[in-house]
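B., you asked whether I could sanity-check this one before it goes into the benchmark set. Here's the sequence:
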Amino acid sequence: MIDTHCHLYLDQFKDDLKAVLDRAAEAGLSHIFLPAIDLGSLPKMDQLQHPEIAFHKMAGIHPTSVNDGKGITEQKLYDLCSQPEYVAVGETGLDYYWSEDYKSDQQESLRVHCRVAKEIQKPIVLHNRESTDDLLDIIEEEQDGSLNGIWHSFTGSVDEGKRAIDLGLELGIGGIFTFKNAGVDKAVAQLPIDYMMVETDAPYLAPDPKRGKRNEPAFVKHTAERLAEVMDMSFGEVESITDENALRLFEIN
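And here's what the prediction gave me:
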């Protein structure tokens, strides 16, 4: 299994990181992808290691970090993300939940990340909270045929999912998808699994039956199991397809 979106470098894991990684390996995880929140995330990623798990780093500025006054120049982002050790640009995106005072700053940051992703030909990883129309509109404007990436923690409608796929994006299926009252599963059931991958967003958004607890990579299995139910497929089929999708998108051999 692969966790395509995990913040293992955060303080929530500092006291039991080895145990968390051992549980991930026991659950069958072979790859964990690490999106950045800001530049301070990057050195922390370098401390992660486990003999059975490959870690893959990204560089970017989360939209709520933009709200906090953190940013990055296009040249600095290019210099970082063009290095082979970084497999993607992000996470970036839009988040209007906490405040709408920073819309223009977030949108400009997103465009910077899009330009870099296109220039270096690496996928972009997108956060979206209460900003779907603006997010997809910007991706459409920036799309020149070379932009690809993932709408992480997909919570959209069927039409929004189809539009995202048409725009070159894939869908990250995470904990919210498993919540019985969220309704995300109904939309996902009508979308093609060939454009999906599973994720945790750990330490946030733990899936049922772990909802409310600190999320961790091993819990991605619960999301994959629920996806198998929704798609009327075996767990093995879902695991194989979503793993292949992730390795293809991030160009991991």
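One thing to flag: The chain has a mean pLDDT of 97. Otherwise nothing jumped out at me.
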